[in-house]
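Changelog-linked ticket: pyridoxal-5'-phosphate example.
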Amino acid sequence: MNIDFSQPVNRWNTHSAKWDLLTQPYGKDAISLSVADMEFRTASPISQAICSAAELGCYGYTEVFEDFANTAVHWQIQRHNWSPDPSSVIFFPRVVQCLSSLLHSPIPYHTNHPPQLGTEHKNWRVSCLFPAYDPLIEVIELSDAQLIPVELVEEKGKYVIDFTVLRQALEKSDLFILCNPHNPTGRVWTSEELHCITKIAKETGTIIFSDDVHADFLRGVTHPYTPLASIAPDLWESGHIIHCASPGKTFNLAGLESTAIFSQGDTAKLLHKAKRAYGLHNPNYFAIPGAIAAWTYGEEYLEELLPYIDSNIGYTVNYFRTHLPRAIVYEPEGTYLVWIDLRSYISSAEDLTALMHKSKVVVSRGEDFGSRYLGYIRINTALPRTQLEEALSRLSAHLNP
Ligand SMILES: Cc1ncc(COP(=O)(O)O)c(C=O)c1O
């Protein structure tokens, strides 16, 4: 395929959330390392599928057919060695909408502390690892669910789960949100860690919402990525795992809104109902052709993309360690994101705003991932190398005046 990822793409004036909304205050010469989408064109077979759908010129309602589920499963088998049944696939536009619609549904009776039969619906109790991807937290809070934060702990420069704290949280949770690979820390949970999680979930009856939208971005530096459901067939069969997969991150298709939610049994029934209750009937016109093309023809593109991202991540980690040695950089095992503790350089939200204005480099703010992460930043490395190099040198110049 020979894709040239070094070619810049101009996304200004495309109604881009990252550029036209979030970068606009910093000026047209700003560089954005924020929102988790990529500054690369998608694979040409995907663009062709979308263009040929566009050429029809007739954008009526569409539906989800078997080919969506079959290609979603095909991708899991091919890339992740997991073969769920196609009947377990439920189309949702977005992961965040799936979570939100679930939390507006009655709590199913197979969780640990179900409401008594015949009693009123009570609010969900949801535990989540922190730091956490903010829109998921927002829907938990806006749905009046009770949020039970589980802070990751640092061990030898790496974030790990404190399983005693996790157990205490899951004992009082109906749902646990796992993010694998984890945004923002870039951890890819080892199979030992996943086994510990499933052991606790089995004992507490908690449903696990496994948000694996970054699963295709693996650096292969240490251990492989494992879909949780593949190591806990009993939890999977009993409907205690909801697995989220999407071509959105992998192929830069987030704006198409196409997600495959995998689920079994009563939880699957609940999700089908929750989706209808939310009025999420038909997919966006381009969502299905885009996803099918991605999961059918996208592998070659991904194989070329991964070394480019890996090299950008390596460059970013080394750059900070060399030029900003007081920063603590958490080298990611997956995703294209790098999480950095910059507290020895900036001490307030205003400092970070000033840095972004002066350097004209936009990053994601640590406090968006949890209030205690003020002074941290998250950097998106999925952009042409020259732009990344320029952005890091501007940041360094203003942090090392
Ligand atoms: C961990 C994680 N989950 C979910 C999403 C968003 O998914 P969606 O657009 O399907 O709601 C993102 C986007 O950055 C993410 O990083």
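Closing comment: Example verified and attached. Confidence is low (pLDDT under 50) at residues 114-121. Residues 36, 94-96, 133, 179, 183, 211, 213, 246, 248, 254, 259 surround pyridoxal-5'-phosphate (CB under 6 Å).
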